[in-house]
Every structure is written in structure tokens, then in C-alpha cells.
Write a structure and sequence with these properties.
With 80 residues, the protein is mostly helical. The chain is built from five helices and no strands. The longest helix is centred in the C-terminal third of the chain and has 14 residues.
Length: 80
């Protein structure tokens, strides 16, 4: 599976991570919808490395970003 520049290790790590983490849930959404990491990083005003760490569950988004993520996924009606 190759999704718009997402390395297979990122996809596998995201699938193995817990979607209770807002960053992991965001990763599922972005990988599925083929949204580039650079766009996500720009939207949240963080680095691409931060986004990758969120996607695999290594880092947690700050509270304000976590709230934005959950709200965005809820509005998108993305099933987790």
C-alpha cells in the first residue's frame, strides 16, 4: 500500500497504534484521504516531523491541537 508519499513503515506503525490518540486518529484520516503531511503541518503550524510522530503515537498533540483534531474528525464523520 502506497499512499501519496506515505512510507509503508508509517502506514504500518499508524495501523498498529491506538486511535484513542488524536494524532493517530488524524494519521488514519490523512493516510486514507491521501492528505500530504506538509499540508497537515502547515495547518497545525508544526513541523512535518511532529506530524509523523503524532501519526505513529510517539508524541501527543497539545491540548488545543488535540481538540481541533477531534472536532475536525467529528465534522468529517470519519469512523475510527
Amino acid at each position: 500500500m502506497d499512499n501519496r508519499g506515505y512510507a509503508s513503515r508509517i502506514i504500518k506503525a499508524n495501523l498498529a497504534a491506538d486511535t484513542k490518540s488524536p494524532g493517530v486518529a488524524l494519521g488514519r484520516f490523512c493516510i486514507t484521504k491521501e492528505i500530504p503531511v506538509s499540508d497537515v503541518a502547515e495547518y497545525f503550524d508544526v513541523s512535518r516531523m511532529t506530524i509523523y510522530k503524532w501519526f505513529v503515537g510517539e508524541w501527543q498533540p497539545r491540548k488545543t491541537n488535540a481538540e481541533r483534531i477531534w472536532d475536525m474528525l467529528k465534522r468529517a464523520k470519519f469512523p475510527l
